[in-house]
Amino acid sequence: MPLFRSKAEQKLVERGLDPARLPPGQYLTEKWPVLHAGSVPKTDLATWNFEVFGEVERPLTLTWDELRELPATEVTVDVHCVTRWSRFDARFRGVHWRELAKLVEPKPHARFVVAHAEQGFTSNVPLEALEADDALLAYEADGEPLTPDHGWPLRLLVPSRYFWKSAKWLRGLELRTTDQPGFWERYGYHNDADYWEEERYGF
User: Fold this and answer.
1) Helix (H) or strand (E) run with residue 61 in it
2) CA-wise closest residue to 44 among 94, 100, 118, 95
3) Sheet containing 170-176: which strands, arranged edge to edge?
4) Residue 172: which H helix or E strand, with range?
5) Sign of the CA dihedral 148, 77, 115, 120?
6) pTM score of the predicted model
7) Taking Cα atoms as reference points, which of 201, 200, 190 lies closest to residue 80?
8) Cβ atoms within 10 A of the Cβ of 197, count?
9) Each residue of 145-155: pLDDT tens digit?
């Protein structure tokens, strides 16, 4: 009779899923819980824009239509929230960083990114996390436009980190030579947010 490390692992095996996909301390859900600080912002696509600035050769500002004209990429990823839920095989569509990098030309010493979102929210990741094949600036989820609760019209998607790093209501990316803690990091969340290491709180 097989031995399971946890009830969560047993449930995954019973459903024919690989338990190795579930990071420690997480449980699987098919729902997509809504969690954020503050209220859902109101957005007018006629005046909305998106910026890339900081350590780049050519700072860039795009309208919504200009962003949507860029080549699109679709990824299927597992996402893991610091509140312990995980969602497998979530599909997202959007613009990969490489398309923006062609336009802005990051400077050689750019190493970090601060994502700027509505209402002053920020999140920070190493540039290499944004360069990963499965990272996106996402505007669709599971074949539909993002809902306002989940970050419409645009959210960051960085599947290699706990999901708070994937900032909702994204308005800009700032490239930096040095790291700068984001909103939740300043409130004690772990700067690196590696879910395999359970880096939830503290440095």
Assistant:
1) strand 60-63
2) 118
3) 60-63, 49-54, 170-176, 112-117, 122-126
4) strand 170-176
5) positive
6) 0.91
7) 200
8) 11
9) 999 999 999 99
Q: How far is CA 154 from the centre of its chain?
A: 10
Task: Map residue 127 onto helix, strand or coil.
Answer: helix
Give the DSSP H or E segment for 62.
Answer: strand 60-63
Helix (H, G, I), strand (E, B) or coil at 68: helix
Distance CA 99, CA 48 (A): 20
**Of 157, 178, 173, 180, which is closest to residue 76 (Cα–Cα)?**
157
Short-list 56, 50, 6, CA closest to 26: 6
DSSP 3: -
**Strand 49-54 and strand 170-176: pairing?**
parallel
User: Which strand (E) or helix (H) includes residue 7?
Assistant: helix 7-14
The domain 42-75+92-197: what is its CATH number?
Answer: 3.90.420.10
Per-residue model confidence as pLDDT tens digits over 14-57:
666 788 899 999 999 988 878 776 788 999 999 999 999 999 99
User: What sign for the dihedral angle of Cα 1, 85, 91, 71?
Assistant: negative
- C-alpha distances (whole Å) from 118 to each of 159, 171, 194 are 21, 7, 25
Per-domain residue ranges of the chain: 42-75+92-197
